[in-house]
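Recap slide: 3-deoxy-8-phosphooctulonate synthase, sequence and predicted structure.
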Amino acid sequence: MQLDVIPQLKHTKSDNFFLLAGPCAIEGEDMALRIAEQAVEITDKLEIPYIFKGSFKKANRSRIDSFTGIGDEKALKILRKVSETFKVPTVTDIHTEQDAAMAAEYVDVLQIPAFLVRQTDLVVAAAKTGKTVNLKKGQFMSPESMKHAVKKVTDSGNDQAWITDRGTMFGYQDMVVDFRGIPTMKQYAPVVLDVTHSLQQPNQSSGVTGGRPALIGTMARAGIAAGVDGLFMETHFDPANAKSDGANMLDLSLLEKLLGDLVALRKVVVGL
């Protein structure tokens, strides 16, 4: 797995899992810098390769009045400031082919949302930027089908693709992670487990997505035990008042203890 190609990514020789973490959406400069500062301090201490995550806009919303962003360019400039301030790479999700070229000017990894991972033009546009492409497995897709999404990236001349599992829809309002899919998808690309979105409870009658954040630690430990290469989690210092996905985010105050436990578990798994 080539992590060294990502600019400013530290601790790539530590044999740790890598981490994509940050708020669901960029709500403003101060909140982004506050979350990034604490995450960088923790991951440096634990020698975890860290990429700051923040969506510059949210296109998949339950209701028309849901928060979508503070403005594309404004949010992307904040992502760039995080990178420059803390010397870490950044990742954001894109929704259109036009987003790919625009976001690639500001961030180091482009993420394809789960609902859009079968959109060939979008995947190809992301690949052609030359950036690492993080492909979220559709909630409606089998692990085996993700090899085709990866092939779209590689056939576009880009060998830097990851797969992120965020669960499979079970009924209408719940997600289930089938850990049998982890070794299957690792045949195609490095695999990340999205531990917070896997605990979402979408399609609530209120129009606001629910979640089960008390199980974030359980999900993360299971992912490490199953051999994932990386973890994805959304975190915020005030999840209850976050403008997007607060119901399934990790409280930032819990991040250091959780990551410390996961690093210890990783050492056991690697040694088996």
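The chain has one domain: 18-271.
The chain has a mean pLDDT of 93.
(End of recap.)
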